[in-house]
Amino acid sequence: MGLSVSRVCCLAGLLAANSHVVAQTAASLGAGDFPRKQVRMIVPFAAGGNTDFLARTVGQKLTESWGQQVIVDNRPGAGGSIAGELAVKAPADGYTMLFVSLTTAIAATLHEKLPYNVLKDFSPVILMATAPQVLAAHPNVPAKNVKELIALAKARPGRLTYASSGIGGGTHLTGELFKLASGTDLIHVPYKGNAPALSDLMGGQIDLIFAGIISVVPPYKAGRVRPLAVTSVQRSPVAPDIPTMIESGVKRVESTSWYGLVVPAGTPRDIVQKLNREIARILETPEVRDRLRAEGALVAAGTPDAFSAHIRGEVEKWARVVRAAGIRAQ
Question: Yes or no: is domain 36-130+257-325 CATH 3.40.1000.10?
Fold first, then answer.
């Protein structure tokens, strides 16, 4: 004897409800005993730099906390797309994390055919740290502050040069943002990294540089460069005597290097929250906070939702700069 339509509908409803409960229970159990195996943190930069330092510091502390190995997997190249493609193809289970930064937000517009969409294909976990950039000049440049530099640049359009660590990088885009906001015509000189750019600034081969603050402090203290302003909203504790761009009268130049972690979209929310809580705890320990400060960075450690809003705002902001400046990926 067949089942009535009403009984079939009732059974279907019960099965659907039970499936939902089972799924919720499985997800909950997954977060409760997560991680049960090795975790991979993919980093789109070469080993040995400041970014790698942060990834390895957090990875080591997670290993100690969880009793499961966190492997830092360096996959540099192609504006971060090599690392991003690996991460986006990984299972959405929390066992693969991707290290993201200011470069990630810029690449979303700079590279037209990325194998992923940073706003749709990843779930933000945590913004870990931020670090200001600084505009510095060679001592022979006759400008003691940003106001004098703008006046000088307008009197000499197309003659003052500024260095960055490479085309399409954060320091390059900060320079272009400054040009747009100040109405100046500076000549961009890209280098393959910050070290050779800073070396040529100290040698007088170029006039200006946009660089991470920690790299500028030693030559500044030695009198070999003149910092004019930091690009963060507030002054940096690393060099509190350097004014901000806002204090210097250029209100639209706010640019900080930032570093965070995302996971593939679809990762259970409770696993994302567990990752967020544990990493935030690590970042707030005096040891890690002090080590980051020594590198010129400040702990952020916000919520996943706050980091999601931050990434979206950064993608939109730098898209406007990339388009206005007509920058193309090399």
Answer: no
Half-sphere exposure (Cβ direction) of 152: Cα atoms closer than 13 Å: 17
pTM of this structure: 0.86
Residue-level pLDDT at 311: 98
Strand partners, 42: 73, 98
Amino acid sitting at position 223: G
Q: Which residue, among 203, 205, 207, 200, has the nearest Cα to 137 in the 3D structure?
A: 207
d(CA 160, CA 206): 8
If one counts every other C-beta atom within 10 angstroms of the C-beta of residue 67, the result is 7
Query: What CATH number was assigned to the domain covering residues 132-230?
Result: 3.40.190.10
What pLDDT score was predicted for residue 111?
A: 87
**Cis geometry, peptide bond prior to residue 219 (ω within 30 degrees of 0):** no
What residue ranges of the chain have pLDDT lower than 70? Answer: 1-30, 50, 330
